[in-house]
Q: What sequence folds into this?
């Protein structure tokens, strides 16, 4: 299984399209994987065929996580990934339309690396996605990066 | 003798003849004369005989008489004295000598007044002069030779005895010593006077009830005078029942000689009088009952007072008995001394058994009951002491005891007077009330839970709104943007304009949603109160506004302002809105002049923000703070109509007020207050 640079966990098809549009437009990565279901996201990592077991060398370099997801919520996914030794170092940027204080607090508490509220304005939305991508993919150094 | 004569006269009539009339007449006459003479002589003879007999008899009589007189004189207990007309003693009898404590032989040859000089001498002389007897009673006399006898009293008489010539032959002087009688009388009189002094009615009756004595007290009490009463029957006079009617009493009275008790008598005026009567039986020397005396005291007033006291006591008692509260008096050692009916009812035990038993025995918690009355003894009183009285049936009565000690006149504590108030019903009501209260509380809880649920629903609704409504808006804007980006250069002006309308409408709606969310969150946000540096707060907001509006020519004048007390983020939001509005509504001014400041007024601080903007028409003031209410068109001034509603909501949650003053084209002033905290 090939690894992906960016894993987008997002159920809103339009948001996904806008995110992918920007990523490709800004040439951030061509290895983007999209999961639009919470349960699927858990399976992706910890399922029988999950990458944690089968392809631990190809974990995503960045997870863009929506909170409001079918079946399993974004916070559950956050908790699972951040409470597992093998996945906890993956940077997770919560990218949500919720500006609820509780969501923010919970997210940080569970180990979110960043919390970005999806802007209403499409220009700003695009810019945010571009900024997030360039920051985490190019500027930030993770534990998985080579020496 | 006369009968004989009559017989002779009858014989004579039979011998009468007509021719010998004259001769016969003289003869008859003679005979008659002889007969008369004979009769006279016989008579004289007889008289002489009688005379002789009489004389003989008289002589005997004289001798006899003299002997009798002598004996009488000698042995009479009455002192008798013979005096000559000069009052010299001729002879005195034994009784006289004895009375004078002398011997009879000492007197003859002496003058009476030589021995016994007194003012009586004058009387003696008068008797002699007038030859008239004199009699006197209880005349006082003092023996000159016996001064120790004191005054003696004598009834005496002096009787002159005259001779054939009418001259005084001698004087008979007889006396009777009445000293004892006189003294007894005086004593009796003194007694009577004393008896009269007594207020009690004192009366003496003989055994048949005839009143013999009646004192002043009796006159006063009954109204009958002594003269009216004496001699009357007491029963009829006083219209009273005979006491001795009862055999028992009669026997006892004659045995003991004494009785006392109450009697009802009737006065002269007909009114009844109750007396306390004491009777004493009077006996003669031989202990034979002769009379009884009564001492009667008017106790009508006393009886009335007694009756009043009794009635008062009865009234009090009835009051106590009528009380629905169990009442009880307790002695110092905790024994019941008195109870009322309610106590009997509460315990189910008759008062005879209750009295004398332990007070604490009748309670569910005897120890607490004991402590209760001990507390009264130590503190003087206790109020609303909660206990439960046990009834023999097993049920209990919840009571509140109020008790005080009661004292005698000397101030010594005699016991405790305790009154219980049955609060079973009260407790029931309380319980019902509690239940109702609990019910209400439950309902409140239910309501609260329901509200919380609704709140949660609202919250999740808000959440949905923030996510689900925003997502399509973002899509609208995002896709419009993508189209413009990729094909925008192919569009004509009009199409470009319309695409921009789509995008700005989406923005507008996003803003609306955000504002609405903020506004709705205000209602449930917990206030985090602290002291606020209002000046710093305003400066922060102003800086942000300057950043957002870099091209505006605007000035803020900050006047003196008191520090505030409130939720920092919310009060900051108030200033964001007010100053933001001020900036917004001055955008057509060359220079925006904005002022902020505040002052203290009593218990609140008043803050204001003023601008020189477009102001508003006070006619529509009531719409100023309404949600989604706007006084300006969106074309002139962008906005969602939530800002001032949010301000009002925040200030109200702080307990403050918000108001505004404005005039079209002449600026607006917004005021809000915060409660001061020292």
A:
């Amino acid at each position: 299984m090939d690894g992906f640079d960016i894993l987008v966990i997002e159920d809103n098809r339009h948001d996904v399209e806008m995110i992918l549009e920007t990523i490709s437009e800004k040439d951030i990565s061509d290895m983007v994987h999209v999961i639009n279901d919470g349960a699927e996201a858990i399976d992706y990592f910890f399922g029988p065929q999950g990458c944690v077991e089968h392809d631990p060398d190809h974990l995503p370099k960045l997870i863009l996580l929506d909170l409001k997801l079918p079946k399993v919520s974004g916070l559950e996914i956050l908790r699972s990934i951040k409470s597992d030794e093998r996945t906890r170092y993956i940077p997770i940027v919560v990218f949500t339309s919720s500006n609820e204080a509780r969501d923010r607090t919970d997210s940080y508490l569970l180990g979110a690396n960043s919390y970005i509220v999806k802007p209403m304005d499409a220009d700003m939305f695009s810019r945010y996605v571009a900024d997030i991508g360039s920051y985490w993919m190019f500027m930030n150094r993770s534990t998985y990066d080579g020496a | 003798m006369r009968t004989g004569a009559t017989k002779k006269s009858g014989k004579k009539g039979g011998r009468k003849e007509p021719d010998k009339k004259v001769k016969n007449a003289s003869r008859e006459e003679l005979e008659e004369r002889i007969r008369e003479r004979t009769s006279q002589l016989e008579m004289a003879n007889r008289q002489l005989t009688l005379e002789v007999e009489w004389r003989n008899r008289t002589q005997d009589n004289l001798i006899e008489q003299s002997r009798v007189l002598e004996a009488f004189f000698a042995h009479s207990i009455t002192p008798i004295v013979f005096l000559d007309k000069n009052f010299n003693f001729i002879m005195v009898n034994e009784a006289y000598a004895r009375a004078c404590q002398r011997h009879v032989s000492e007197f003859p040859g002496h003058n009476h007044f030589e021995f016994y000089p007194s003012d009586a001498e004058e009387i003696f002389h008068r008797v002699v002069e007038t030859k008239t007897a004199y009699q006197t009673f209880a005349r006082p006399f003092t023996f000159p030779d016996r001064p120790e006898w004191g005054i003696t009293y004598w009834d005496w008489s002096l009787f002159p005895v005259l001779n054939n010539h009418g001259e005084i032959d001698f004087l008979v002087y007889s006396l009777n010593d009445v000293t004892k009688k006189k003294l007894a009388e005086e004593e009796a009189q003194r007694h009577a006077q004393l008896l009269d002094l007594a207020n009690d009615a004192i009366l003496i009756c003989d055994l048949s009830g005839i009143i013999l004595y009646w004192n002043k007290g009796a006159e006063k009490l009954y109204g009958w005078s002594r003269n009216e009463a004496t001699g009357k029957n007491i029963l009829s006079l006083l219209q009273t029942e005979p006491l001795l009617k009862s055999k028992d009493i009669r026997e006892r009275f004659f045995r003991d000689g004494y009785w006392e008790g109450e009697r009802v008598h009737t006065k002269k005026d007909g009114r009844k009088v109750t007396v306390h009567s004491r009777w004493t039986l009077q006996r003669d020397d031989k202990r034979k009952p002769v009379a009884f005396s009564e001492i009667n005291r008017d106790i009508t007033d006393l009886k009335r007072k007694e009756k009043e006291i009794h009635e008062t006591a009865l009234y009090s008692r009835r009051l106590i008995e009528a009380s629905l509260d169990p009442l009880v008096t307790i002695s110092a050692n905790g024994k019941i001394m008195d109870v009322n009916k309610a106590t009997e009812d509460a315990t189910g035990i008759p008062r005879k058994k209750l009295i004398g038993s332990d007070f604490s025995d009748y309670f569910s918690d005897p120890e607490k009951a004991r402590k209760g009355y001990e507390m009264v003894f130590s503190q003087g009183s206790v109020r609303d002491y909660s206990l439960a009285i046990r009834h023999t049936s097993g049920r209990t009565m919840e009571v509140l005891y109020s008790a005080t000690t009661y004292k005698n006149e000397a101030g010594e504590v005699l016991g405790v007077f305790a009154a219980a108030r049955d609060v079973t019903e009260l407790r029931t009501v309380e319980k019902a009330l509690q239940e109702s209260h609990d019910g209400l509380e439950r309902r409140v809880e239910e309501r609260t839970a329901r509200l919380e649920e609704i709140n949660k629903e609202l919250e999740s609704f808000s959440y949905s709104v923030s996510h689900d409504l925003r997502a399509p808006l973002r899509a609208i804007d995002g896709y419009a943007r993508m189209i413009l980006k990729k094909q925008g250069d192919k569009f004509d002006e009009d199409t470009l304009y319309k695409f921009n309308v789509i995008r700005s409408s989406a923005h507008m709606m996003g803003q609306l949603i955000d504002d609405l969310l903020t506004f709705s969150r205000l209602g449930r946000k917990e206030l985090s109160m602290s002291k606020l540096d209002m000046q710093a707060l305003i400066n922060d907001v102003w800086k942000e506004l300057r950043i957002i509006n870099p091209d505006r020519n605007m000035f803020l004048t900050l006047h003196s302002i008191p520090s505030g007390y409130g939720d920092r983020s919310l009060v900051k939001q108030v200033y964001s809105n007010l100053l933001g509005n001020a900036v917004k509504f001055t955008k057509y001014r060359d220079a925006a002049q904005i002022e902020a400041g505040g002052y203290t007024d009593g218990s609140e601080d008043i803050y204001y923000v003023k601008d020189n903007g477009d102001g508003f028409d006070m006619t529509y003031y009531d719409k100023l703070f309404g949600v989604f209410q706007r006084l300006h068109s969106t074309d002139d001034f962008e906005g969602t109509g939530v800002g001032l509603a949010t301000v009002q909501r925040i200030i109200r949650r702080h307990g403050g007020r918000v108001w505004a003053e404005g005039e079209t084209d002449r600026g607006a002033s917004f005021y809000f207050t915060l409660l001061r905290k020292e």
In short: Chain B is about 45% helix and 25% strand. The interface with chain A takes residues 463, 466-467, 470-475, 477-482, 503, 506-507, 510-511, 514, 517 of chain B (CB under 8 Å).
